[in-house]
Write a sequence for this structure.
């Protein structure tokens, strides 16, 4: 049960786009399209941002998009806004009903 | 709207035991649920999951054998019984709802309850 790998930090200026990667293995990200992304502001509970790689829950802006290639999933935030500054975590379903999370990426809006 | 309210956190000595609770409301049906923890300044870590019926449970290797997740269907309450606690178990423990089954995302989260294990 190894954690997924994310870069610890990412940054961009308002209006720019930023992509955060999440690398797993052939037993988790590579095996299933059950990849989710969560946004967490300081002192708050995580909030679901994307699920099943590309799907957005109701209310999530279309500035947030997802993709996957082999064992790596990615979250792209387009048109960066100040309120996007937060921690972002990826998650994947894995064999035997296990859930894996990434270590998290702190996104800074410059 | 789904509401999850955790309780039971606090300060406990290493080697001790603790039971966390999560009161669930606002659902028209039962869902699979989970506990997810976050050590101070660290990332999220899945701890355990339980099916909607309570018949099936799954645990992370880091807690297997030391904790038991259960649910009281009559009270719509989840529990996480923890023993042999160590400093590594210090974290905010969140109760989270799967949108459907174990492979689905967590679409609702509680505000968390802090567990501090003193060594």
């Amino acid at each position: 049960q190894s954690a997924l790998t994310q870069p610890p930090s990412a940054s961009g200026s308002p209006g720019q786009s930023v992509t955060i990667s999440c690398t797993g293995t052939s037993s988790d990200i590579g095996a299933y399209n059950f990849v989710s992304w969560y946004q967490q502001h300081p002192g708050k509970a995580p909030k679901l941002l994307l699920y099943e790689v590309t799907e957005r829950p109701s209310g999530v802006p279309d500035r947030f998009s997802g993709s996957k290639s082999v064992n790596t999933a990615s979250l792209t935030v387009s048109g960066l806004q100040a309120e996007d500054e937060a921690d972002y975590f990826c998650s994947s379903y894995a064999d035997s009903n296990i859930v894996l999370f990434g270590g998290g990426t702190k996104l800074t809006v410059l | 709207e789904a509401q999850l309210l955790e309780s039971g956190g606090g300060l406990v000595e290493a080697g001790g035991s603790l039971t966390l609770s999560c009161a669930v409301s606002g659902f028209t049906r039962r869902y699979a649920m989970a506990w997810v923890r976050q050590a101070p300044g660290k990332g999220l870590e899945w701890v355990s999951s339980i099916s909607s019926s309570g018949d099936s449970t799954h645990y992370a290797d880091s807690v297997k054998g030391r904790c038991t997740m259960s649910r009281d269907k009559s009270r719509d309450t989840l529990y996480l019984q923890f023993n042999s606690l160590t400093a590594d178990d210090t974290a905010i423990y969140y109760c989270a709802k799967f949108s459907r089954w174990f492979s689905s995302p967590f679409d609702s989260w509680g505000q968390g309850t802090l567990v501090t294990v003193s060594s």
